[in-house]
Amino acid sequence: MDFCQHFQFRGHIDPVTPLTAAYFHGQVEQPVRGLMSLMQQKDLPVLIAVNERGIYVIDQIECTLLLGLKYDELSWDYAKPSNVNDPECLPCIFLQFGAVENGIAATKLMQIFTRQAAMVDALITHFIEQAKRRKESGGVAGGAAGEVPEVPIVGVVGVGGGENPYEAEPNPIQNNGVGVLSNKLSRLTLATFDDEGRCIGQTGSLAISY
User: Fold this and answer.
1) pLDDT over 70 for what percent of the chain?
2) 3-state SS string over the chain?
3) pLDDT per residue over 66-92, tens digit each?
4) Residue whose C-alpha is closest to residue 59's, from 14, 97, 12
5) Best exposed site among 22, 49, 87, 148 by fewest CB in 10 Å?
């Protein structure tokens, strides 16, 4: 885990704003199509940035933000490796979030492999609990107009934030209304669910599970 204060990367809505966060090393599957799907592909190395505002997935090679979510826009789950004796079988973090495809609301599921998954899970839990305590103590007003609704949990056991204690901050995370950089989703291996929880698309190892 690395603590960085002025990590600059391309693709952020506000690229000149330094982001203080804990950074974890991980990897994600790259989407492949056609004949390339018959060949073994290397995973894409990523940085997982976690701070009190949300979680970010950054292409470590190109220093490009692939996904940025506030805690009230996601559900997550921590999964241990299926074979603890296999060094190539890594624990992972599942991220579930809302997106819009062709004008239709959908739910996306992303899998991030990292040996530091337990630490990522613990830090997310810490920041969400911290936000809840802050709200309960009357430090931040909740339920503001225009607040993004909680993403329903579909297809994975997770914990939704459901609260947004950061409306009053001077430089809030900006998004397209569903909390995701949708122009980068084509670079990610995802499972897609409709509003009734049916899996309507999956790629990579996620295709095995649904």
Assistant:
1) 61
2) CEEECCCCCECCCCCCCCCCEEEEEEEECCCCCHHHHHCCCCCEEEEEEECCCEEEEEECCCCEEEEEEEHHHEEEEEECCCCCCCCCCCCEEEEEEEEEECCEEEEEEEEEECCCHHHHHHHHHHHHHHHHHHHHCCCCCCCCCCCCCCCCCCCCCCCCCCCCCCCCCCCCCCCCCCCCCHHHHHHCCEEEECCCCCEEEECCCHHHHC
3) 999 999 999 999 999 888 888 888 999
4) 12
5) 87
> Going by C-beta distance under 8 Å and a sequence separation of 6 or more, which residues neighbour residue 180?
67, 68, 69, 73, 97, 98, 99, 108
Q: What is the pLDDT of residue 19?
A: 56
Contact (Cβ atoms closer than 8 angstroms) between residue 31 and residue 188:
yes
Q: What is the dihedral of CA 167, 5, 92, 186, to 10 degrees?
A: 70
In this predicted structure, what is the pLDDT of residue 82?
84
89: amino acid identity, one letter: C
Whether the per-residue pLDDT at 164 is higher than 70: the answer is: no
Determine contact, residues 166/144, Cβ cutoff 8 Å: no
CATH classification code of 2-209? 2.30.29.30
Nearest to 139 by CA among 114, 163, 108, 171: 163
With bands split at pLDDT 50, 70 and 90, how would you rate the model's confidence at 163? very low
Q: What is the pLDDT of residue 85?
A: 85
